[in-house]
Design a protein that fits this description.
The complex is a heterodimer of chains A (329) and B (326).
Chain A lengths: L1 H13 L1 H25 L4 H39 L24 H34 L1 H6 L5 H38 L7 H32 L2 H22 L8 H9 L3 E10 L5 E10 L1 H25 L4
Antiparallel strand pairs in A: 1-2
Chain B lengths: L6 E2 L9 E14 L2 E14 L2 E6 L6 H8 L7 E6 L2 E3 L3 H4 L3 E4 L11 H11 L5 H9 L15 H13 L5 E5 L7 H16 L3 E6 L2 H7 L2 E6 L2 E7 H8 L3 E5 L3 H10 L3 E5 L2 E5 L4 H9 L7 E5 L3 H12 L1 H7 L1
Parallel strand pairs in B: 1-11, 4-9, 4-10, 7-8, 8-9
Antiparallel strand pairs in B: 2-3, 2-5, 5-6, 10-11, 12-14, 12-15, 13-14
Helix pairs in contact in B: 3-4, 4-5
The chains are: A mainly alpha (329), B alpha/beta (326).
Bound molecules: adenosine-5'-triphosphate (ATP) and magnesium ion.
The site of adenosine-5'-triphosphate (ATP) has 14 residues of chain B, from strand 2, strand 3 and helix 1.
Amino acid sequence: MMRLTKVELRRLFSRRLTTVALLGALAVTGLMLFGAFTEAKPLSAPEQAAQQAQFDQAKKDWAVNGDQQIQSCLDAQAEQQKLDPKANFGCNQMEPNLANWGKPVAKFNQMMPNILLAGSYLLAFVAFLVGAGFVAAEFSSGSMANWLTFEPRRLRVYVSKLGAAGLGLIPVAVAVLGLLTAGSWLIVDHLASTAGTTAKVWGDLALMGGRAVALAVAAAMAGAAMGVLLRHTAAVLGIAVGYLVLVEGVFGQAFQGARPWLLQLNFNAWLQHGATYFAQTCKTDAQGNYNCQGVEKVLSFGHGSAYLGLLVVLTVGLAALVFRRRDVS
Amino acid sequence: MTTPAPRHLQPSPSTSELAISTRGLRKTYRNRKGRHVAVAGLDLDVPLGGVHGFLGPNGSGKTTTIRMLLGLIRADAGTMSIFDREVPQHLPEVVGRVGAIVESPKFFPAFSGRKNLQLLAEAIDCPRSIVDQVLEQSGLGGRGKDKYKTYSLGMKQRLAIAATLLKEPDLLIFDEPTNGLDPAGIREIRNTMRSLGEQGKTVLVSSHILDEVEQVADTVSIIGHGRLLASGRVADVIGDQTATSLRVGVADPVTAQRILTDGGLLVRLDGGLLVVEGFSDGAEITRRLAAHDLFVNELIPVRADLESVFLELTADEGLETAGAAR
Ligand SMILES: Nc1ncnc2c1ncn2[C@@H]1O[C@H](COP(=O)(O)OP(=O)(O)OP(=O)(O)O)[C@@H](O)[C@H]1O
Ligand SMILES: [Mg+2]
């Protein structure tokens, strides 16, 4: 069993698709670091001067027209308060403030969770693709039959293939996430602020990274299972992309209520230990007016992990059953 | 539909002398167009040691049978055993002694031949050094580092044979191994099979070409429409089934035909040559014609081909109607 898994690991890393996918992941990692760089980069001296000039101009305008602007704001607010007594237009905050000009200083502890989240999406996709191609290629090339004449115990073969796909992705995921974290730290430390990165922040980041690695492993195994079911890499990819566009995209937009059952939100809930989302709740009020309100809702970590776990277990289990019984030719 | 009893030309060997045995083996393929019986109650016995030909026309169920033996597809009914172990239940115990090529060889196209073999060798835990050894043995030594997809058909076959030798098997199953090979390649594979047989290994070679099997096999089974039609020693099965005939060239074929027909032979004219059916004694023909001052200038023994053997067998067994009713 261990031996078979070792052989499969060797095969996994000899495959061109694996190499290409890893290079692709590396390239995207580079792009993400570039993104971090542009976010952390302070304004250059000419940009800053331009901002200062704009601010000075606004300040001058304010000296002339400020009172009038406040007055018209208050009038509009009073008008609105007839309908809604709680209306607040923030008329006392209209004076130009230099802090709103220019660019706030980037903070590592605020940037990093988002970068990790994006990195995990990337890893999950790469893992799924690599896992699917790894197994599907064997069916489409016909070499599975040959392999089974050397090891006819189907369940072992299946477990070794999924195991290799999952295990093989661990170092890849660790490397990509490590690169992202180290790279972002260096960039932000150099250009902006890493203050406030306490031990607790690092702990949270480490936990999130761990969950991202687990997600990549699960995605690789789910991909491999889909490869067993569909037998062609292109078919797996087609279904995956079709699902993402139609179900997660179109359907998800049309039926907001379905969002807790879509992958993306569950990914977020798993990775960020709970995720918030906005849902419209509409009702008819006492006056018979129909109105809708965006309400912030939380999808719990438990929901995310249970749901994703169930999906993986179902896919992997179904593929195991199919593979055990299938005629291979 | 009753299964006619196949003609066993030698007494059934006891099980311990068998490398492969199947009883009542059945496989029905189901697809959109309906059901298709590929193997219909096959009783196949392959004796231990030597080369056993597995003959049948296209679509008679040879590959299907081999796949079932190797656990690649499920049988609908019947029992199979390899080296007295029931398969597929006990296949893992015997698979290490069985090397097989099913239909065209299939490996990972983007890996080199050598890499493909290394992966297989590692999977069954045999020393890596054996890989170069079998590559050399199968005449692929120089091309081992090239990608499999760049191989010619003959090289693919060689690699497949090399792969079966990784296990040092006692039973080799070759499904139409000479498909697509040139005469030199065919002869080489034939020699490989012969020498394996002489080493005491059992070789099961399927083919739809009678000649090929006849040259290499010690024993043979003939199947048609998924069931056994005949089995036994090659000479017995093929020799008995169809009397060979002679093609005779003489200056005056019409007179010669009259003379031979008067002598009680079945003779017909075929494009200037006489065909003497069911008679293979060339000397006798020469003698009779010479007695009438007719001299033979050409005398070609006509070998029975699989088609005629097969047609005769199916006619005997009344199987053609069964086949048509399918
Ligand atoms: N996967 C499949 N699905 C449906 N029918 C099949 C399948 N494989 C084989 N068959 C049918 O089963 C029958 C037996 O096929 P099989 O490949 O065993 O024949 P064969 O004796 O090996 O022929 P050949 O000499 O051409 O290799 C054929 O009629 C074939 O069409
Ligand atoms: Mg065949």
